[in-house]
Write a structure and sequence with these properties.
Structural class: mainly alpha
Helix content: over 70%
Number of helices: 19
Largest sheet: 2 strands, antiparallel
Shape: globular
Length: 497
Protein backbone atom coordinates (compact mmCIF):
# COMPACT_ATOMS: atom_id res chain seq x y z
CA UNK A 1 0.00 0.00 0.00
CA UNK A 2 1.44 3.38 -0.96
CA UNK A 3 0.83 6.92 0.10
CA UNK A 4 0.57 9.13 -2.97
CA UNK A 5 1.19 12.84 -3.08
CA UNK A 6 -0.47 14.45 -6.09
CA UNK A 7 1.53 17.44 -7.30
CA UNK A 8 -0.32 20.61 -8.16
CA UNK A 9 -0.76 21.47 -11.82
CA UNK A 10 1.96 23.61 -13.38
CA UNK A 11 -0.05 26.82 -13.20
CA UNK A 12 -0.34 26.56 -9.44
CA UNK A 13 3.36 26.62 -8.83
CA UNK A 14 5.83 28.79 -10.63
CA UNK A 15 9.29 28.70 -9.06
CA UNK A 16 11.25 31.90 -8.85
CA UNK A 17 13.88 32.60 -11.49
CA UNK A 18 17.11 32.28 -9.52
CA UNK A 19 20.69 32.64 -10.58
CA UNK A 20 21.85 29.44 -12.18
CA UNK A 21 25.29 29.36 -10.66
CA UNK A 22 25.63 25.60 -10.30
CA UNK A 23 27.04 26.16 -6.83
CA UNK A 24 27.00 22.57 -5.79
CA UNK A 25 25.92 19.10 -6.75
CA UNK A 26 23.27 16.84 -5.29
CA UNK A 27 24.19 14.90 -2.20
CA UNK A 28 22.00 12.04 -3.30
CA UNK A 29 20.74 10.64 -6.58
CA UNK A 30 18.08 8.08 -5.79
CA UNK A 31 15.97 5.76 -7.83
CA UNK A 32 12.81 4.59 -6.23
CA UNK A 33 9.38 3.23 -7.03
CA UNK A 34 8.11 3.70 -10.57
CA UNK A 35 5.92 6.67 -11.30
CA UNK A 36 2.29 6.45 -12.34
CA UNK A 37 0.86 8.91 -14.84
CA UNK A 38 -2.02 10.94 -13.51
CA UNK A 39 -5.32 9.91 -15.03
CA UNK A 40 -6.29 13.39 -16.15
CA UNK A 41 -2.83 14.72 -16.95
CA UNK A 42 -0.97 12.40 -19.31
CA UNK A 43 2.78 12.76 -19.01
CA UNK A 44 2.60 14.33 -15.52
CA UNK A 45 4.00 12.05 -12.85
CA UNK A 46 2.81 11.38 -9.36
CA UNK A 47 5.18 11.24 -6.43
CA UNK A 48 4.95 8.00 -4.48
CA UNK A 49 5.63 7.64 -0.78
CA UNK A 50 5.77 3.91 -0.09
CA UNK A 51 4.89 2.71 3.38
CA UNK A 52 8.00 2.84 5.52
CA UNK A 53 9.80 -0.49 5.79
CA UNK A 54 11.55 0.96 8.85
CA UNK A 55 10.29 3.57 11.31
CA UNK A 56 13.04 6.04 10.35
CA UNK A 57 11.91 5.97 6.71
CA UNK A 58 8.67 7.89 7.35
CA UNK A 59 7.82 10.55 4.75
CA UNK A 60 10.16 9.02 2.17
CA UNK A 61 9.94 10.45 -1.34
CA UNK A 62 10.97 7.31 -3.22
CA UNK A 63 10.72 9.00 -6.61
CA UNK A 64 12.54 12.33 -6.88
CA UNK A 65 13.62 13.70 -10.27
CA UNK A 66 14.27 17.45 -9.95
CA UNK A 67 16.03 17.62 -13.33
CA UNK A 68 12.79 16.50 -15.03
CA UNK A 69 11.11 19.85 -15.77
CA UNK A 70 7.60 18.34 -16.03
CA UNK A 71 8.05 16.61 -12.69
CA UNK A 72 9.40 19.83 -11.18
CA UNK A 73 6.56 22.01 -12.47
CA UNK A 74 3.89 19.47 -11.50
CA UNK A 75 4.71 19.65 -7.79
CA UNK A 76 8.42 19.04 -7.23
CA UNK A 77 9.12 22.75 -6.82
CA UNK A 78 6.46 23.09 -4.14
CA UNK A 79 7.84 20.16 -2.16
CA UNK A 80 11.44 21.39 -2.47
CA UNK A 81 10.46 24.89 -1.36
CA UNK A 82 8.64 23.53 1.69
CA UNK A 83 11.72 21.55 2.70
CA UNK A 84 13.91 24.60 2.10
CA UNK A 85 11.83 26.76 4.46
CA UNK A 86 12.08 24.36 7.39
CA UNK A 87 15.71 23.57 6.66
CA UNK A 88 16.57 27.28 6.81
CA UNK A 89 14.69 27.63 10.11
CA UNK A 90 16.61 24.80 11.75
CA UNK A 91 19.95 25.94 10.36
CA UNK A 92 19.28 29.54 11.43
CA UNK A 93 18.70 28.47 15.03
CA UNK A 94 21.76 26.23 14.82
CA UNK A 95 23.93 29.21 13.87
CA UNK A 96 22.45 31.21 16.75
CA UNK A 97 23.28 28.47 19.26
CA UNK A 98 26.75 28.06 17.73
CA UNK A 99 27.48 31.78 18.20
CA UNK A 100 25.69 31.99 21.57
CA UNK A 101 28.88 32.52 23.51
CA UNK A 102 29.92 35.47 21.37
CA UNK A 103 27.04 37.18 23.19
CA UNK A 104 27.31 35.56 26.61
CA UNK A 105 30.92 36.66 27.12
CA UNK A 106 29.66 40.25 27.11
CA UNK A 107 27.69 39.41 30.28
CA UNK A 108 30.71 37.99 32.09
CA UNK A 109 31.75 40.98 34.20
CA UNK A 110 34.51 41.24 36.83
CA UNK A 111 32.53 39.04 39.24
CA UNK A 112 33.24 36.05 36.98
CA UNK A 113 37.01 36.61 37.17
CA UNK A 114 37.75 35.96 33.49
CA UNK A 115 40.25 38.09 31.56
CA UNK A 116 40.13 38.96 27.85
CA UNK A 117 42.28 35.98 26.83
CA UNK A 118 39.98 33.63 28.72
CA UNK A 119 36.93 35.04 26.97
CA UNK A 120 38.48 34.51 23.54
CA UNK A 121 39.00 30.86 24.53
CA UNK A 122 35.31 30.61 25.39
CA UNK A 123 34.41 31.69 21.87
CA UNK A 124 37.09 29.54 20.18
CA UNK A 125 35.93 26.21 21.64
CA UNK A 126 32.42 26.09 20.13
CA UNK A 127 33.92 27.20 16.82
CA UNK A 128 36.29 24.23 16.92
CA UNK A 129 33.65 21.63 17.77
CA UNK A 130 31.27 23.02 15.17
CA UNK A 131 33.98 22.77 12.52
CA UNK A 132 34.75 19.17 13.48
CA UNK A 133 31.09 18.12 13.39
CA UNK A 134 30.53 19.42 9.88
CA UNK A 135 32.06 16.33 8.30
CA UNK A 136 29.85 13.70 10.00
CA UNK A 137 26.82 15.99 9.67
CA UNK A 138 27.38 16.21 5.91
CA UNK A 139 27.08 12.45 5.45
CA UNK A 140 24.41 11.93 8.13
CA UNK A 141 21.78 13.15 5.68
CA UNK A 142 22.54 10.31 3.26
CA UNK A 143 22.58 7.80 6.10
CA UNK A 144 19.50 8.81 8.08
CA UNK A 145 17.46 11.03 5.73
CA UNK A 146 17.23 14.81 5.58
CA UNK A 147 13.99 15.11 7.50
CA UNK A 148 15.05 12.64 10.22
CA UNK A 149 18.44 14.27 10.70
CA UNK A 150 16.99 17.79 10.77
CA UNK A 151 14.63 16.77 13.58
CA UNK A 152 17.45 15.13 15.54
CA UNK A 153 19.99 17.92 15.01
CA UNK A 154 17.43 20.52 16.04
CA UNK A 155 16.55 18.71 19.26
CA UNK A 156 20.24 18.33 20.14
CA UNK A 157 20.40 22.14 20.31
CA UNK A 158 18.41 21.92 23.53
CA UNK A 159 21.48 20.55 25.32
CA UNK A 160 23.79 23.61 25.08
CA UNK A 161 20.94 26.07 25.64
CA UNK A 162 19.66 24.33 28.77
CA UNK A 163 23.20 23.92 30.14
CA UNK A 164 24.01 27.60 29.56
CA UNK A 165 20.81 28.60 31.33
CA UNK A 166 21.71 26.42 34.31
CA UNK A 167 25.35 27.37 34.92
CA UNK A 168 25.51 31.09 34.16
CA UNK A 169 25.92 32.75 37.53
CA UNK A 170 28.83 34.33 39.42
CA UNK A 171 30.95 31.72 41.16
CA UNK A 172 30.75 29.12 38.41
CA UNK A 173 34.13 27.61 37.63
CA UNK A 174 35.92 28.54 34.44
CA UNK A 175 36.28 24.86 33.55
CA UNK A 176 32.51 24.45 33.69
CA UNK A 177 32.03 27.43 31.39
CA UNK A 178 34.57 25.99 28.94
CA UNK A 179 32.75 22.64 28.83
CA UNK A 180 29.32 24.22 28.34
CA UNK A 181 30.63 26.63 25.70
CA UNK A 182 32.21 23.75 23.80
CA UNK A 183 28.90 21.87 23.64
CA UNK A 184 27.38 24.84 21.80
CA UNK A 185 29.49 23.72 18.85
CA UNK A 186 26.75 21.25 17.89
CA UNK A 187 25.00 24.21 16.25
CA UNK A 188 27.86 24.54 13.78
CA UNK A 189 27.23 21.13 12.27
CA UNK A 190 23.70 22.04 11.19
CA UNK A 191 24.99 24.10 8.28
CA UNK A 192 26.68 21.11 6.63
CA UNK A 193 23.71 18.76 6.92
CA UNK A 194 21.27 21.46 5.81
CA UNK A 195 23.32 22.30 2.71
CA UNK A 196 23.71 18.62 1.78
CA UNK A 197 19.97 18.08 2.18
CA UNK A 198 18.80 21.09 0.16
CA UNK A 199 21.49 20.34 -2.41
CA UNK A 200 19.66 17.09 -3.21
CA UNK A 201 16.23 18.67 -3.49
CA UNK A 202 16.97 21.24 -6.21
CA UNK A 203 17.88 20.86 -9.90
CA UNK A 204 21.28 21.99 -11.07
CA UNK A 205 19.89 25.15 -12.67
CA UNK A 206 18.43 26.37 -9.34
CA UNK A 207 21.10 25.27 -6.87
CA UNK A 208 22.82 28.66 -6.70
CA UNK A 209 19.67 30.39 -5.53
CA UNK A 210 18.54 27.57 -3.22
CA UNK A 211 21.92 27.12 -1.52
CA UNK A 212 22.39 30.89 -1.32
CA UNK A 213 19.06 31.29 0.47
CA UNK A 214 19.83 28.32 2.70
CA UNK A 215 23.32 29.53 3.64
CA UNK A 216 22.34 33.19 3.99
CA UNK A 217 19.31 32.37 6.14
CA UNK A 218 21.50 30.23 8.37
CA UNK A 219 24.25 32.81 8.67
CA UNK A 220 21.66 35.36 9.81
CA UNK A 221 21.48 33.39 13.04
CA UNK A 222 24.71 35.10 14.11
CA UNK A 223 23.42 38.71 14.09
CA UNK A 224 19.99 37.64 15.37
CA UNK A 225 21.37 36.09 18.56
CA UNK A 226 23.48 39.21 19.03
CA UNK A 227 20.38 41.37 18.68
CA UNK A 228 18.62 39.22 21.28
CA UNK A 229 21.61 39.69 23.55
CA UNK A 230 21.38 43.45 23.03
CA UNK A 231 17.67 43.38 23.88
CA UNK A 232 18.32 41.45 27.10
CA UNK A 233 21.16 43.78 28.08
CA UNK A 234 19.05 46.88 27.39
CA UNK A 235 16.01 45.64 29.32
CA UNK A 236 16.95 43.09 32.01
CA UNK A 237 20.61 44.10 32.32
CA UNK A 238 23.95 42.30 32.40
CA UNK A 239 22.98 40.42 35.56
CA UNK A 240 20.61 38.16 33.60
CA UNK A 241 22.61 36.26 30.96
CA UNK A 242 20.39 33.18 31.36
CA UNK A 243 17.58 34.90 29.49
CA UNK A 244 19.49 34.71 26.19
CA UNK A 245 19.70 30.89 25.88
CA UNK A 246 16.25 30.44 27.42
CA UNK A 247 14.71 32.49 24.60
CA UNK A 248 15.77 29.75 22.19
CA UNK A 249 14.20 26.79 24.01
CA UNK A 250 10.69 27.16 22.51
CA UNK A 251 12.15 28.11 19.13
CA UNK A 252 14.18 24.89 19.02
CA UNK A 253 11.11 22.80 19.85
CA UNK A 254 9.09 24.55 17.14
CA UNK A 255 11.86 24.01 14.56
CA UNK A 256 12.07 20.30 15.36
CA UNK A 257 8.28 19.95 15.27
CA UNK A 258 8.06 21.77 11.93
CA UNK A 259 10.76 19.54 10.44
CA UNK A 260 8.99 16.41 11.68
CA UNK A 261 5.64 17.42 10.24
CA UNK A 262 6.61 19.19 7.01
CA UNK A 263 9.93 17.86 5.73
CA UNK A 264 10.68 14.76 3.67
CA UNK A 265 13.44 12.19 3.26
CA UNK A 266 15.08 11.42 -0.06
CA UNK A 267 16.67 8.08 -0.98
CA UNK A 268 20.10 7.63 0.55
CA UNK A 269 23.21 8.00 -1.58
CA UNK A 270 25.15 4.88 -0.77
CA UNK A 271 28.15 6.01 -2.81
CA UNK A 272 28.73 9.03 -0.60
CA UNK A 273 30.77 7.02 1.90
CA UNK A 274 33.77 6.74 -0.40
CA UNK A 275 33.47 10.22 -1.87
CA UNK A 276 35.34 11.89 0.98
CA UNK A 277 38.35 9.64 0.47
CA UNK A 278 38.27 10.39 -3.24
CA UNK A 279 38.16 14.17 -2.87
CA UNK A 280 40.88 14.04 -0.21
CA UNK A 281 43.21 12.78 -2.96
CA UNK A 282 42.30 15.73 -5.19
CA UNK A 283 44.80 18.65 -4.78
CA UNK A 284 42.16 21.22 -5.68
CA UNK A 285 40.14 20.12 -2.65
CA UNK A 286 42.83 21.42 -0.32
CA UNK A 287 43.25 24.61 -2.31
CA UNK A 288 39.52 25.32 -2.05
CA UNK A 289 39.57 24.48 1.66
CA UNK A 290 42.36 27.01 2.18
CA UNK A 291 40.39 29.69 0.35
CA UNK A 292 37.31 28.90 2.42
CA UNK A 293 39.36 29.35 5.58
CA UNK A 294 40.09 32.87 4.38
CA UNK A 295 36.44 33.68 3.61
CA UNK A 296 34.07 31.80 5.91
CA UNK A 297 36.72 31.43 8.62
CA UNK A 298 37.04 35.21 8.69
CA UNK A 299 33.27 35.69 8.81
CA UNK A 300 32.58 33.33 11.68
CA UNK A 301 35.78 34.21 13.55
CA UNK A 302 35.16 37.96 13.42
CA UNK A 303 31.49 37.40 14.26
CA UNK A 304 32.46 35.57 17.45
CA UNK A 305 35.26 37.95 18.46
CA UNK A 306 34.16 41.44 17.43
CA UNK A 307 32.30 42.33 20.64
CA UNK A 308 35.27 41.32 22.76
CA UNK A 309 37.66 43.23 20.51
CA UNK A 310 35.65 46.42 20.96
CA UNK A 311 35.47 46.04 24.73
CA UNK A 312 39.17 45.22 25.02
CA UNK A 313 40.69 47.63 22.53
CA UNK A 314 38.29 50.54 22.99
CA UNK A 315 37.34 50.04 26.61
CA UNK A 316 37.02 53.78 27.15
CA UNK A 317 34.20 53.93 24.56
CA UNK A 318 32.63 50.52 25.31
CA UNK A 319 32.76 50.39 29.09
CA UNK A 320 29.41 48.56 29.34
CA UNK A 321 28.28 45.38 27.55
CA UNK A 322 25.24 47.09 26.05
CA UNK A 323 27.44 49.61 24.22
CA UNK A 324 29.45 46.83 22.58
CA UNK A 325 26.33 44.83 21.76
CA UNK A 326 24.89 47.82 19.90
CA UNK A 327 27.50 47.30 17.16
CA UNK A 328 28.43 43.62 17.19
CA UNK A 329 25.44 42.49 15.14
CA UNK A 330 25.97 44.93 12.25
CA UNK A 331 28.95 43.22 10.59
CA UNK A 332 27.56 39.66 10.68
CA UNK A 333 24.21 40.97 9.42
CA UNK A 334 25.75 42.61 6.37
CA UNK A 335 28.04 39.65 5.72
CA UNK A 336 25.08 37.26 5.76
CA UNK A 337 22.94 39.38 3.46
CA UNK A 338 25.62 39.77 0.78
CA UNK A 339 26.56 36.09 0.63
CA UNK A 340 24.20 35.36 -2.31
CA UNK A 341 25.62 38.47 -4.01
CA UNK A 342 29.03 36.81 -4.10
CA UNK A 343 27.56 33.87 -5.98
CA UNK A 344 25.85 36.12 -8.51
CA UNK A 345 29.05 38.11 -9.05
CA UNK A 346 30.92 34.84 -9.60
CA UNK A 347 28.30 33.80 -12.15
CA UNK A 348 28.98 36.95 -14.13
CA UNK A 349 32.75 37.41 -13.81
CA UNK A 350 34.03 34.00 -12.71
CA UNK A 351 34.53 32.60 -9.22
CA UNK A 352 38.31 32.86 -9.19
CA UNK A 353 38.31 36.51 -10.34
CA UNK A 354 35.79 37.52 -7.69
CA UNK A 355 37.63 35.55 -5.01
CA UNK A 356 40.97 37.15 -5.90
CA UNK A 357 39.45 40.64 -5.85
CA UNK A 358 37.80 39.82 -2.51
CA UNK A 359 41.05 38.74 -0.86
CA UNK A 360 42.86 41.82 -2.20
CA UNK A 361 40.11 44.03 -0.77
CA UNK A 362 40.18 42.15 2.54
CA UNK A 363 43.90 42.82 2.78
CA UNK A 364 43.18 46.53 2.24
CA UNK A 365 40.44 46.39 4.89
CA UNK A 366 42.80 44.74 7.35
CA UNK A 367 45.39 47.42 6.65
CA UNK A 368 42.73 50.03 7.46
CA UNK A 369 41.93 48.29 10.75
CA UNK A 370 45.64 48.11 11.65
CA UNK A 371 46.13 51.81 10.89
CA UNK A 372 43.01 52.71 12.89
CA UNK A 373 44.25 50.63 15.82
CA UNK A 374 47.55 52.56 15.86
CA UNK A 375 45.70 55.88 15.69
CA UNK A 376 43.01 54.72 18.12
CA UNK A 377 40.43 55.92 15.62
CA UNK A 378 37.11 54.24 16.33
CA UNK A 379 35.27 55.44 13.17
CA UNK A 380 38.04 54.18 10.89
CA UNK A 381 38.28 50.96 12.90
CA UNK A 382 34.55 50.31 12.49
CA UNK A 383 34.72 51.13 8.79
CA UNK A 384 37.55 48.65 8.21
CA UNK A 385 35.88 45.86 10.18
CA UNK A 386 32.52 46.39 8.49
CA UNK A 387 34.28 46.10 5.13
CA UNK A 388 35.88 42.83 6.28
CA UNK A 389 32.49 41.37 7.18
CA UNK A 390 30.95 42.38 3.85
CA UNK A 391 33.91 41.13 1.84
CA UNK A 392 34.04 37.81 3.69
CA UNK A 393 30.35 37.32 2.86
CA UNK A 394 31.00 37.97 -0.84
CA UNK A 395 33.96 35.58 -0.73
CA UNK A 396 31.79 32.87 0.82
CA UNK A 397 29.55 32.96 -2.23
CA UNK A 398 32.33 33.11 -4.81
CA UNK A 399 34.37 30.24 -3.34
CA UNK A 400 31.30 27.98 -3.22
CA UNK A 401 30.77 28.83 -6.88
CA UNK A 402 34.27 27.52 -7.63
CA UNK A 403 33.87 24.12 -5.95
CA UNK A 404 31.74 22.28 -8.55
CA UNK A 405 33.91 23.56 -11.42
CA UNK A 406 36.78 21.32 -10.32
CA UNK A 407 34.78 18.11 -10.79
CA UNK A 408 32.79 19.38 -13.75
CA UNK A 409 36.13 19.78 -15.52
CA UNK A 410 37.00 16.21 -14.57
CA UNK A 411 33.63 15.07 -15.93
CA UNK A 412 34.25 16.83 -19.26
CA UNK A 413 37.64 15.20 -19.55
CA UNK A 414 36.25 11.76 -18.68
CA UNK A 415 33.45 12.15 -21.24
CA UNK A 416 35.94 13.12 -23.92
CA UNK A 417 37.93 9.98 -23.06
CA UNK A 418 34.87 7.77 -23.61
CA UNK A 419 33.16 7.60 -20.21
CA UNK A 420 29.38 7.59 -20.22
CA UNK A 421 28.31 11.25 -19.81
CA UNK A 422 25.55 10.43 -17.31
CA UNK A 423 27.94 8.42 -15.15
CA UNK A 424 30.62 11.13 -15.36
CA UNK A 425 28.13 13.81 -14.32
CA UNK A 426 26.81 11.69 -11.44
CA UNK A 427 30.35 11.14 -10.18
CA UNK A 428 31.12 14.87 -10.43
CA UNK A 429 28.04 15.73 -8.39
CA UNK A 430 28.83 13.13 -5.75
CA UNK A 431 32.36 14.42 -5.31
CA UNK A 432 31.23 18.05 -5.30
CA UNK A 433 28.92 17.31 -2.37
CA UNK A 434 31.76 15.69 -0.48
CA UNK A 435 34.03 18.68 -1.13
CA UNK A 436 31.34 21.06 0.13
CA UNK A 437 31.40 19.15 3.41
CA UNK A 438 35.19 18.99 3.58
CA UNK A 439 35.75 22.64 2.70
CA UNK A 440 32.97 23.72 5.06
CA UNK A 441 34.57 21.85 7.95
CA UNK A 442 38.10 23.06 7.30
CA UNK A 443 36.92 26.59 6.58
CA UNK A 444 35.14 26.77 9.91
CA UNK A 445 38.45 26.06 11.65
CA UNK A 446 39.50 29.48 10.36
CA UNK A 447 37.17 30.90 12.98
CA UNK A 448 39.18 29.08 15.63
CA UNK A 449 42.41 30.55 14.26
CA UNK A 450 40.92 34.07 14.32
CA UNK A 451 39.94 33.79 17.98
CA UNK A 452 43.27 32.21 18.96
CA UNK A 453 45.13 34.98 17.13
CA UNK A 454 43.21 37.63 19.04
CA UNK A 455 43.75 35.77 22.31
CA UNK A 456 47.50 35.55 21.85
CA UNK A 457 47.78 39.12 20.59
CA UNK A 458 45.94 40.66 23.54
CA UNK A 459 47.68 38.31 25.98
CA UNK A 460 51.19 39.28 24.87
CA UNK A 461 50.87 42.87 23.61
CA UNK A 462 47.58 44.12 25.13
CA UNK A 463 46.39 45.05 21.63
CA UNK A 464 45.09 43.33 18.52
CA UNK A 465 47.84 44.64 16.23
CA UNK A 466 49.74 41.35 16.01
CA UNK A 467 46.53 39.56 15.02
CA UNK A 468 45.82 42.13 12.29
CA UNK A 469 49.29 41.62 10.84
CA UNK A 470 48.67 37.86 10.81
CA UNK A 471 45.34 38.36 8.99
CA UNK A 472 47.02 40.63 6.47
CA UNK A 473 49.62 37.95 5.73
CA UNK A 474 46.92 35.26 5.44
CA UNK A 475 44.94 37.26 2.87
CA UNK A 476 48.12 37.89 0.89
CA UNK A 477 48.78 34.13 0.80
CA UNK A 478 45.19 33.39 -0.27
CA UNK A 479 45.45 36.01 -3.03
CA UNK A 480 48.69 34.51 -4.31
CA UNK A 481 47.29 30.96 -4.25
CA UNK A 482 44.11 31.98 -6.10
CA UNK A 483 46.10 33.69 -8.83
CA UNK A 484 48.75 30.96 -9.14
CA UNK A 485 46.34 28.02 -9.27
CA UNK A 486 43.37 29.45 -11.16
CA UNK A 487 44.22 32.71 -12.91
CA UNK A 488 47.87 32.54 -13.93
CA UNK A 489 48.07 32.09 -17.71
CA UNK A 490 47.92 28.40 -18.50
CA UNK A 491 47.52 27.33 -14.87
CA UNK A 492 44.01 25.90 -14.79
CA UNK A 493 42.07 27.36 -17.69
CA UNK A 494 40.29 24.07 -18.26
CA UNK A 495 38.48 24.50 -14.95
CA UNK A 496 36.71 27.58 -16.28
CA UNK A 497 36.52 29.17 -12.86
Amino acid sequence: MSTVVNPQPPAADKPAAPAADGTAAPAAEGTGAPTTPAADKPGVHEIHRPQAPHPTDARLLADWRPEDEEFWAAGGARIARRNLVFSVLSEHIGFSVWSLWSVLVLFLGPEYGIDAAGKFTLTALPTALGAFLRLPYTFAVARFGGRNWTVFSALVLLVPTVLAGLVLEPGVSYGTLLAVACVAGVGGGNFASSMANINAFYPQRLKGWALGVNAGGGNLGVPVVQLIGLLVLATAGAAHPRLVPLVYLPLIVLAALGAALRMDNLPSARGERGALREVAREPHSWVMSLLYIGTFGSFIGFGFAFGQVLQTQFGDRFDTPVKAACLTFLGPLLGSLVRPVGGRMADRWGGARVTLATFAAMAAGTGTVLYASHRHSLPLFLLGFTALFVLSGIGNGSTYKMIPAVFQARARAATAAGTDPVEAERDARRRSSALIGLAGAIGAFGGVLVNLAFRQSFLTTASGDAAYVAFLAAYAVCSAVTWAVYLRPGAARALRL
